[in-house]
Amino acid sequence: MNTSGGFGRYIRVPAAWVLRLPGNITLRESMAYGTAGFTAALCVLKLQTHGLTKESGEVLVTGATGGVGSIAVGILAMAGFHVVAATGKTDQNDFLSRLGAEQVISRTETIDDSGKPMLKGRWAGVVDTVGGDILATAIKSTRYGGCVACCGNAMSADLAVSIFPFILRGVSLLGVNSVEPAIGDRLLAWQKLAQDWKLDLSGDLVSECSLEELNSKIDEILAGGIRGRVVVNLSR
After folding, report:
1. Under a CB-based contact definition with an 8 Å cutoff, are residues 33 and 71 in contact?
2. DSSP line for 168-193
3. What does the pLDDT look like over 49-85, one tens digit per residue?
4. What is the pTM of this model?
5. Interstrand relation of 123-128 and 206-209 (parallel, antiparallel or unpaired)
6. Which CATH superfamily does the domain covering 20-202 fall into?
């Protein structure tokens, strides 16, 4: 995260930072997944470690058209989960359905302003990529024994929620960090992405740009105008 050179052809880093590219995955596919895909895989693995199965019930993915969210939708759907994708981009319903979401809901449906400490339990699991009020509402709406994987703060780093979902429903809030996970977790996540959870990265989930186009793409990302993943193709 704090080392320059991420868009170069070569970068010099400590050996402990790198893994051998798994079989059955190309260099382009590894970059299409990138940190976002790796983070999504860590989220799903952590939910499964805490008991989430495809029989548990609906799984909510917030920020579903973003890099982490879109990969999470695809992974969960491939693993057989009933995925509900939440997005503020109402024109992307078909995109999310193609990724495997069984239902697409508006971002406004994931924000509760009633002030209630708990809401009707719906979600067996959650992958939250945005934080703030959406994360707070997801926690309040998680069923008894459910779990919420939290990995982003695009909306806010603040979390206004009472302790009741945790002590009355036994909800687990699982923080996901993609910078310093254990080597075993790194290996497992990439093995899953290369095998059991390998997505079709040739379609509209991934686009490409040249290095010269990168600044404008970053502006689009910051403005919320990008869906899925963007690969910087240095040979273009």
Report:
1. yes
2. HS--EEEE--SSS--HHHHHHHHHHH
3. 999 999 999 999 999 999 999 999 999 999 999 999 9
4. 0.94
5. unpaired
6. NAD(P)-binding Rossmann-like Domain (3.40.50.720)
